[in-house]
Automatic annotation (TrEMBL):
SUPFAM superfamilies: Initiation factor IF2/eIF5b, domain 3 (SSF52156), Translation proteins (SSF50447). This is Translation initiation factor IF- 2 domain-containing protein. Residues 26-38 have a biased composition (Basic and acidic residues). The lineage of its organism: Eukaryota, Viridiplantae, Streptophyta, Embryophyta, Tracheophyta. Residues 33-147 form the Translation initiation factor IF- domain. Residues 18-51 are annotated as: Disordered.
Length: 277
């Protein structure tokens, strides 16, 4: 084909070996491609997790010289995370002035001052009145540490589903509806909590042979015939899942809870800092 490399060999045996080698490589590439495609198909799209919401942290940078301004700007941008975007809205050389305050107030920015003198009392008062945060530092590590904590505080976090508890269905009971006003028959799963804890406000997932059979809200949680809000590991309980009547002995029920995971600000002994989501 046009554009392909042409290899010249001096014996038929060498040509045959080269051809076989290329054929094996093509076969390996095909297998590798197929495995990668299957991996992508098997990987869950994680529909249980909400899309990550990214918020902005606008910053004004002031420093003693232009070189320091650039170094501080680059260091701050390295703290960008999937949840928080560090937006350097303005940079400048010299002390913090009224124009910096006006700009910070207009765009909701904090002001970073590196290796510059403290602002005069009038400027500090104006910042306090406008509720503008000023971060003054002479050590880059300390600056990044303070901004990193701001990022963690500002980050919305990601909401995800976690398995809070697991139970095994040991028996099944049926509560007969004595009249239309009492509703239809209700299936109750007699369970033993094998791990974690179950809460009445959580969502329940019914598993059979490792496959999800049903998922729904908890309609009733009882222990020793008494309504309870939670049941811990090792306890027996009666469980009703809303609109579910397909329990079988040996089924596994998982208690699902929504949690918000916030990013972490991590420092190392070498002085490096990073945001881990």
């Amino acid at each position: 084909m046009a554009g392909d490399d042409v290899v010249v060999v001096y014996s038929e045996e060498r040509a045959r070996m080269l051809s076989q080698g290329r054929k094996k490589k093509l076969e390996k590439d095909k297998v590798r491609k197929k495995i990668n495609e299957e991996k992508m198909e098997d990987e869950p799209e994680n529909s249980e997790e909400e899309p990550v919401k990214r918020v902005e942290l606008p910053i004004i940078v002031k420093a003693d010289v232009q070189g320091t301004v650039q170094a501080v700007t680059d260091a701050l941008r390295s703290l960008n995370s999937p949840q928080v975007f560090v937006n350097i809205v303005h940079v400048g050389v010299g002390p913090i002035g009224q124009s910096d305050i006006d700009m910070a107030q207009a765009c909701g920015a904090c002001i970073v001052g590196f290796n510059i003198r403290n602002p005069p009392s009038a400027i500090s008062l104006a910042c306090n009145q406008a509720k503008i945060k000023i971060c003054l530092h002479r050590v880059i590590y300390h600056l990044l540490e303070e901004i990193g904590k701001l990022i963690v505080e500002k980050a919305p976090g990601t909401s995800e589903t976690q398995v809070a508890g697991e139970a095994e269905v040991l028996s099944i009971f049926e509560l007969k509806g004595r009249s239309k006003s009492k509703g239809p028959d209700v299936k109750i799963a007699g369970c033993r909590i094998t791990d974690g804890r179950f809460t009445k406000s959580a969502t329940m997932r019914l598993l059979r042979s490792g496959e999800v059979v049903f998922e729904g809200s908890c309609a009733s949680l009882k222990r020793e015939k008494q309504d309870v809000e939670a049941v811990g590991k090792g306890s027996d309980c009666g469980l009703v899942i809303q609109d579910c009547d397909d329990f079988r002995v040996g089924d596994i029920i998982q208690c699902l809870e929504r949690v918000v995971r916030k990013p972490k600000f991590i420092t190392s002994e070498s002085g490096a800092v990073r945001i881990e989501c």
